[in-house]
Amino acid sequence: MKLLEPIVTRRSIRKFKDDPVSDAQVELLLQAAHLAPSGSNTQPWTYIVVRSEETRRKVMEVSHEQKWMMQAPVFLVCVADLGVRIKEGDLPAINEESALPEVKLIIRDAAISVDHLVLQAESMGLGTCWVAWFRNEEIRPVLGIPDSHYVVAVVPVGVPDQTPMPRPRKEFGSMIYREKWGQS
Ligand SMILES: Cc1cc2nc3c(=O)[nH]c(=O)nc-3n(C[C@H](O)[C@H](O)[C@H](O)COP(=O)(O)O)c2cc1C
After folding, report:
1. Which of 94, 110, 115 is nearest to 39 (CA)?
2. How many angstroms separate the CA atoms of 184 and 174, rounded?
3. pLDDT, tens digit, for every residue of 13-65?
4. What does the pLDDT look like over 90-119, one tens digit per residue?
């Protein structure tokens, strides 16, 4: 059990080799996502595996044209199912500004599964980067996702062609209070 290693070595990778990512590798990543914990065990995530160059390009274009994404041979798109907590009739148009409390829980849970996937990728020598710089109104139609679902992240996956230095983090102690808010 050496989980800390991929946690420490993982970086956002934005440059990939031409090497392929196999279906078996994608399967392992999805299995890691599948086992993520979630509030009330709702498991509100679905993944779309996108290999088609045309579809990847459309996803890239609605992700503010982050051209580096196209180097990754596969995108794993995490889609959160709002229906696990909100009755269909009560579903308003959901976008990045939606204030519904359940939406936060659903996105929280789906994000945990993405983290599982990303760390599993690191342990397999694959590179990933979270991409969430898109608007749901724009990305949903590209992938035919119904309005009852919310795209949490696109994760380009590929064989890394860069070894970035660790990106800065806040000072370790600054994120910890003891016993009470504000108490170091
Ligand atoms: C929710 C989320 C959204 C992100 N969206 C993008 C993105 O659209 N494009 C991008 O290049 N990086 C994106 N990132 C990557 C962050 O910039 C990166 O995680 C951060 O700078 C720390 O670097 P590290 O991942 O190498 O530790 C995102 C990360 C998260 C967690």
Report:
1. 110
2. 8
3. 999 999 999 999 999 999 999 999 999 999 999 999 999 999 999 999 999 99
4. 777 778 888 788 888 999 999 999 999 999
Find the helix or strand (DSSP H, E) in which 111 lies.
helix 101-123
At the topology level of CATH, where does 4-175 sit? NADH Oxidase (3.40.109)
Q: Whose CA is nearest to atom 1 of ligand 1?
A: 132
Please tell me the distance between residue 131's alpha carbon and the centre of ligand 1 in angstroms.
6
- Per-domain boundaries in the chain: 4-175
Ligand 1 atom closest to Cα of residue 164: 26
User: 113, 116, 128, 129: which to mutate for ligand 1, most atoms within 8 A of CB?
Assistant: 129
User: What number does the ligand 1 atom closest to the CA of 13 have?
Assistant: 26
Mean pLDDT of the chain: 95
Find, among 97, 159, 84, 170, the residue nearest to 128 by Cα: 159
Tokens 């889609």 sit on residue: 79
What kind and span of H or E run contains 149? strand 149-158
- Least Cα distance to 74 among 45, 46, 58, 52 occurs for 52
pTM for the model stands at 0.94
Q: What is the mean pLDDT of residues 152-179?
A: 96
The C-alpha angle 11, 155, 44, rounded to 5 degrees, equals 120
Cβ–Cβ < 8 Å for 177, 184:
yes
